[in-house]
User: What shape does this take?
Amino acid sequence: MSNLKSLIHQQSLMSLNIVILAAGQGKRMHSKLPKVLHHLAGKPLLAHIVNTAQQLNPAKIFIIYGHGGEQVQAQLGDLPVQWIEQTQQLGTGHALKQAMSFIQNDARVLVLFGDVPLISAKTLQELLAITPNNAVGVLTAQMPNPAGLGRIIRNAKGEMIAVVEDKDTTAQQKEIKEINTGILTASASDLKRWLPALNNNNAQKEYYYPEVITLAVAEKMPVYTTQLTEIEEGQGVNDRIQLAQLERYYQRQQANKLMLAGVTLLDPTRFDLRGEAQIASDVTIDINVILAGKVIIGANTYIGPNTLLRNVTIGQNVIIKANSTIEDAVIDDACEIGPFARIRPGTKLKNNVHIGNFVEIKESEIDEGSKINHLSYIGDTIIGKKVNIGAGTITCNYDGVNKHQTIIGDNAFIGSNSSLIAPLTIGENSTVGAGSTIRRDTPAESLALARAEQRIVDNWQRPKKKNNQEK
Ligand code: UD1
Ligand code: CA
Assistant: This one.
């Protein structure tokens, strides 16, 4: 233990520089989008790995970019990293070399891959902790199916002596299940000596960076290895099957965390969190729910099946029924929403509001106890307390150029199929007759009717089909 402590101590004297290799094209993705911009849990692969790198508090993070460089920087330009271009993708050894002139000799370098997104900060810390300054540290994993990966070669004493890439393996080496995750740490001065000495005499005619191991061993430098316990942490994304596998693994981890914290997931394999969620205990989440962005859900709330919640805060005892979409909204306690409701950005529902089927609400505030139960569009509207909005009511908020506001006072009753032409104020306790088109403000306590009087034509004969038209 004291040994490990002193190693960690030594380590901390060297500044840590993290280099993330992300210039490859990702041929096997068959995509116009650079591989590292493909999403896992709603976030680019590269953003996952940069977030993990940040948790290690390095002096600097470098990203080697190349293929689709402008796109990568445009999407991730605000990350606290230094971008280094690799103009030609000649292999991982060539990629790492691009960073070395930016790194001081006395620094420790940790190399990560942009396409190995789920490595944890804890694992990386362990690797750094076991690797003394004058040594190389390599993170390995036992993979049941190591096809396509670099194999770890060990000598009779069990010491790691080389990595052999899959395409360069002998039949015997192909059987080795211990693989190179690509994650390695060494001192900058050592890497600066080894990287220019690499060659590309191999099956892929590329400069392989794991060959620095062979050079280290030739110098009798010790190579320390640590093996992953969760192999998914070391899994790379080379094609869309692997991307989907890692997505499922990641989602399962998130689902498990929520369940352990008291959230009921009716089927954890049909739950997706693409962002961050704070979910209170005794919340029930039905199947096929997607939570995106930042989602906060209060105790005892039920989220029905096939529901999308993006950037929403939901209170306690709320019921969200099936097939509803809620984005950038705040829903207070005991509201009932759906089925098939669409709550759009800028909506705020106070306590006990009911929003029913096929109702769309945008940029509106609805006060306590009000109900909009069927087939309505409410936009740019402020609705008071205990208002009833009848089926099919539309706020006509758009004149083709500008948006206008509607204000509806407490206790108002809007009859079914009314059009409320904004800008408009409907008085408190007032009533709008069904089927009205209201374009002038209505006073409190009034009845507003704006529809044609009913006419009766007696003995009305509906047209009849002619014989020769009959089938
Ligand atoms: C690499 C390792 C292999 C390891 C595996 C683990 C090498 C030669 N092989 O193989 O031992 O088992 O990862 O996932 O390192 N890149 C560049 N510039 C280049 C080439 C690649 O920046 O010129 C980047 C890629 O964007 C990627 C990473 O380096 O993020 C790895 O490259 P990739 O081609 O995917 O290597 P693998 O064949 O997976
Ligand atoms: Ca890879």
The pocket of uridine-diphosphate-N-acetylglucosamine (ligand 1) is lined by residues 21-24, 64, 86, 89-92, 94-95, 113-116, 149-150, 163, 165, 179-182, 208-210, 236, 238 (CB under 6 Å). The radius of gyration is 31 Å. The chain has nine helices and 37 strands. Residues 3-234 form a domain with the Spore Coat Polysaccharide Biosynthesis Protein SpsA; Chain A fold (CATH 3.90.550.10).
